[in-house]
Please model this.
Amino acid sequence: MLQAYTNATIFTGSEWIENHAVIVSGDTIETIVLAEQLPADMERIDCNQQLLVPTFLDLQIYGAAGKLFSAYPGNEALQLLAEHNATCGTGTCLVTIATQPMPTILACIEAIKTYWQQGGKGIMGMHLEGPFINATKRGAHIEEWVQSPTMEEVKTLLQKADGVIKIVTLAPECVDEAVIREFAENGVIVSIGHSNASFAEATRAMNNGASTVTHLYNAMSPLHHREPGLVGAAMQHGTAAASIIPDGIHVDYEAVKIAKQIMGERLFFITDAVTDTSVGPYQHVLNTDHYDLPNGTLSGSALTMLKAVQNAVQHCNISLEEALRMASLYPARVMGLHNSFGKIETGFAAQFALVSKDLSTAGLHGSIF
Model:
């Protein structure tokens, strides 16, 4: 059955168009036509003169609505996360867990499998952030669980994950190069983070299969004129992408501008958002516009992807068009989904963010990943 999204300013991923309608068939965009060409009897969805843009993808978020996923590994936490994301225009995400003991990691993997088996939507997999990190750059991660894996442990983890783990954040100076290759060759995106790698170590890892850097600037060796570190390696590398948290707290807006000027389309947004949590090893306390551990350590953002777009436009001199791509097309590229997500054009997924013109509100429309 065909439906038409009408009365919207449409961002295709490359340009804005007016007086057009997006016709969808099930989960797929059928075509885009002039609104005046629509058959009179076609079902129409009135967008009330809002912006119709590609759905957002968040590749690092830990939970929502008081249910941190690692503390509540089950359907309820995942469903609440998907529902929260939908209110902000985010159609799918990688639910993320910080450094944990292996039994907790495996429990979270099984919870995602069950969620999928029962028809759950809006979660495309897991981002495993740790435990294969550098304890000196652990940030809010718990030091006693940080470890360097053996190849046997990696192979066992991959077997039990069975495709659930989509991204692993690790410190290349703390793992064998063969570990990076093993993850990459098994379809897991390797992202460098919570790392004290030198420029040379980070660059070697990027050339060895690590294709992404986790939350640029945060919890990593900084750019220094005598040792450019991981920040310098990310900026200098020709193909590696990097996520960034544009909340003005994790990263100063001027630093976002610098990274954007250097990295261009290789830089994309994540929220790194957590939620109020008073149980389990990671207890997050809302501090106005971010989250801290009870000891005051910065532990996560209170961002949404919509707010990330808004901040980029208002504070970082990034155009609305480019900010939207940083929340949709560029993370889709990282995931290898750029032929389905990040654009509104024929053959792409019929999933959209409907955003108010002042960027204050958004909703999710269409199919859910």
